[in-house]
Automatic annotation (TrEMBL):
<keyword id="KW-0028">Amino-acid biosynthesis</keyword>
<dbReference type="InterPro" id="IPR045865">
    <property type="entry name" value="ACT-like_dom_sf"/>
</dbReference>
<dbReference type="InterPro" id="IPR046826">
    <property type="entry name" value="PDH_N"/>
</dbReference>
<dbReference type="Pfam" id="PF02153">
    <property type="entry name" value="PDH_N"/>
</dbReference>
<dbReference type="InterPro" id="IPR002912">
    <property type="entry name" value="ACT_dom"/>
</dbReference>
<keyword id="KW-0827">Tyrosine biosynthesis</keyword>
<dbReference type="InterPro" id="IPR008927">
    <property type="entry name" value="6-PGluconate_DH-like_C_sf"/>
</dbReference>
<dbReference type="InterPro" id="IPR046825">
    <property type="entry name" value="PDH_C"/>
</dbReference>
<keyword id="KW-0560">Oxidoreductase</keyword>
<dbReference type="InterPro" id="IPR003099">
    <property type="entry name" value="Prephen_DH"/>
</dbReference>
<comment type="similarity">
    <text>Belongs to the prephenate/arogenate dehydrogenase family.</text>
</comment>
<dbReference type="InterPro" id="IPR050812">
    <property type="entry name" value="Preph/Arog_dehydrog"/>
</dbReference>
<protein>
    <recommendedName>
        <fullName>Prephenate dehydrogenase</fullName>
        <ecNumber>1.3.1.12</ecNumber>
    </recommendedName>
</protein>
<feature type="domain" description="ACT">
    <location>
        <begin position="293"/>
        <end position="362"/>
    </location>
</feature>
<feature type="domain" description="Prephenate/arogenate dehydrogenase">
    <location>
        <begin position="1"/>
        <end position="288"/>
    </location>
</feature>
<dbReference type="Pfam" id="PF20463">
    <property type="entry name" value="PDH_C"/>
</dbReference>
<keyword id="KW-0520">NAD</keyword>
Length: 362
């Protein structure tokens, strides 16, 4: 198998690493704007060759992954059209799908296109931050066209699953409606909140100084790439605008409830969100979902860690990792204990609590 990548940053690099791991003999070629990254990928053994411009080298690829920002991906279709073989599948990883599907239709390339979008990522960009396990256990949305051969869709779905992601075939309109709500609006909220705090801070910047877990948890994604997010917003304007309208209305409702001191309504706001948030499925949240960790108050005595480890070992519970953490979330240092599976973690919590350890679960 030969696979081509155009754009080899966080997502392209992560997929290339997964392909290299699960299909070591695959020939992987890549063209990217950042020359240093693709050269590093060759040095890492992740890809075989750097391609300076889009040429016949892409002609015999089984799959070509477009992994640049969304609007840039769409621009490559035209260059690829005269080059690709009849069975080649061009796929992308872009966060919006309508724009690229419309370009594919305009160019009459539907039989050779399957849209793709792994629901995993980070606020960090670039090949240097790519990880083989990034897409593992993450939903990977697949948006075929009406003319993509069904066998090609099935083969591609199996390929995605073989990289340990969770394929989900969906139409591209639904994709853009859904992602506006669970990804695009949250990014706008995070960035606008950060900018609001920047503008409302005291002259001596006390808000910035004391900002703690709450602010940091909800705004991590405000550090994401402006180039990528500008293109996402510009290619899903209608869906984002619609849900933004509903969101603004919900904020106005909350403001009215506050102004009128409707405490029951405010209680209901937090109660409903807590129940829904707590019901989110754990499966499909990317590699982080597979971390089974707890935090435990440090016992301030010599050999404290050894005692705790011995209690767990004598109950046949293996530890994956154990270490002291100094985190702003906890007043004192705590012990972070990581397990191999959920069952071990649950048993450990029960046993340690019986021994009067104070445990914090995530
Ligand atoms: N970051 C995420 O969380 C995330 C998650 C899922 C999907 N995506 C989608 O994946 C795609 C890539 O995002 P990323 O996070 O990997 O970004 P990134 O910035 O880490 O990587 C983009 C890569 O594309 C290259 N590039 C940029 N413009 C190019 C062009 N015109 N031609 C060739 N190469 C170009 C860059 O040099 C870089 O190597 C985007 O379409 C994005 O919507 C991102
Ligand atoms: O975890 C993050 O940092 C992300 O923003 C990942 C995230 C998201 O969940 O919104 C971002 C964009 C993608 O298209 C898919 C996933």
């Amino acid at each position: 198998m030969k696979i081509g990548f155009i754009g080899l940053g966080l997502i392209g690099g992560s997929i290339a690493r997964a392909v290299r791991y699960f299909y070591p003999d695959t020939e992987i070629i890549a063209h990217s704007r950042t020359r240093a990254s693709v050269e590093q990928a060759v040095a890492d053994g992740v890809i075989n060759r750097v391609i300076d411009q889009i040429d016949e080298d892409f002609s015999d690829c089984t799959y070509i992954f477009l992994c640049a920002p969304v609007s840039s991906n769409a621009k490559y279709l035209e260059q690829l059209k005269p080059l690709i073989g009849p069975d080649c599948i061009i796929t992308d990883v872009g966060s919006t799908k309508t724009d690229i599907h419309e370009k594919v239709t305009d160019l009459d390339m539907e039989a050779n296109f399957i849209g793709g979008h792994p629901m995993a990522g980070s606020e960090k960009t670039g090949y240097a931050n790519s990880k083989r396990i990034l897409i593992e256990n993450a939903y990977y949305m697949i948006t075929p066209t009406e003319k993509t051969p069904r066998e090609a869709v099935e083969t591609y779905r199996d390929f995605v699953a073989s990289l340990k992601a969770l394929p989900l075939v969906i139409d591209y309109h639904t994709h853009d409606y859904v992602t506006a709500g669970i990804s695009h609006l949250p990014h706008i909220i995070a960035s606008s909140l950060v900018n609001l705090v920047k503008d409302e801070d005291t002259k001596d910047g006390i808000m910035k100084l004391v900002a703690a877990g709450g602010f940091k948890d909800i705004t991590r994604i405000a550090s994401s790439s402006p180039e990528m997010w500008e293109q996402i917003c510009m290619t899903n304007r209608k869906n984002i605008s619609r849900i933004l309208t509903d969101y603004i209305a919900s904020l106005e409702k909350i403001k009215d409830q506050l102004d009128e001191a409707k405490s029951g309504a405010i209680y209901h706001l937090f109660e409903t969100s807590r129940d829904y948030r707590n019901s989110l499925p754990v499966k499909g949240n990317g590699p982080l979902a597979r971390i089974y960790e707890i935090y435990c108050d440090m016992v301030d005595e010599a050999g404290g860690i050894a005692t705790l480890a011995t209690i767990l070992a004598s109950n046949q519970i293996s530890l994956k990792n154990i270490g002291i953490v100094h985190s702003r979330e906890f007043i004192e240092a705590v012990l972070r204990i990581e397990f191999y599976d959920e069952e071990s973690m649950k048993s450990a919590i029960e046993i340690l609590r019986k021994h009067r350890y104070v445990i914090y679960e995530r």
